[in-house]
Amino acid sequence: MSHAGHQAALASRVAAHFSDSADLKRSAAPLLAAPIARAAALMVAALAAGGKVLACGNGGSAADAQHFAAELVNRFETERPPLAAVALTTDTSSLTSIANDYAYEQVFEKPLRAIGRKGDVLLAISTSGNSASVLAAVRAARELGIATVALTGRGGGKLAALLGPDDVLLCVPHERTIRIQEVHLLVLHCLCDGIDFQLFGAQ
After folding, report:
1. 30-200: CATH architecture
2. Which site in 2, 10, 117, 178 is 20 to 30 Å from 86, CA atoms measured?
3. Is the overall model pTM greater than 0.90, yes or no?
4. What is the pLDDT of residues 165-189, one digit of tens each?
5. Which positions ≥6 away from 61 have C-beta within 8 Å?
């Protein structure tokens, strides 16, 4: 293949990514809009009562947890007071000591048990729904009376089966990790906007 042909093929692949991502977002919107609104209301109730949102996930989902916490603590699109959110993915000393002394599976469960309180909300992010460390955190949240918002894909995996009636499942209807992650970011921005809209009347 010539250089020009190679570039054209690559450009075509890029265009397909944009098209696939846009198609998924359009098809997911009617399925996810109501549960996202419910999740935002759950978080608002916790924040308004003096609680906090605790977020966890692995890899790209860890980055999403930190992104979400930063939007709440700092700001989203409008000037407003800081909101209580903690990413359970950021303390490397705690994470590595728990993984080293006990098991990686407990890296989110242990800090959740340490700082989580009844009335808080856990944002549990796993594209497959089968991340052992996230599942352990969700089980601990149920014991502590902490509601869970589960952000997942691929049918929800084992995570969906752990949720109770007060929890919210946000499951992206797709099998491919990169597409699920792209919609996860949109969902997080919708949650941030919904929280600000309810608490501060953001436009």
Report:
1. 3-Layer(aba) Sandwich (3.40)
2. 178
3. yes
4. 999 999 999 999 999 999 999 999 9
5. 125, 126, 127, 131, 134, 151, 181, 184
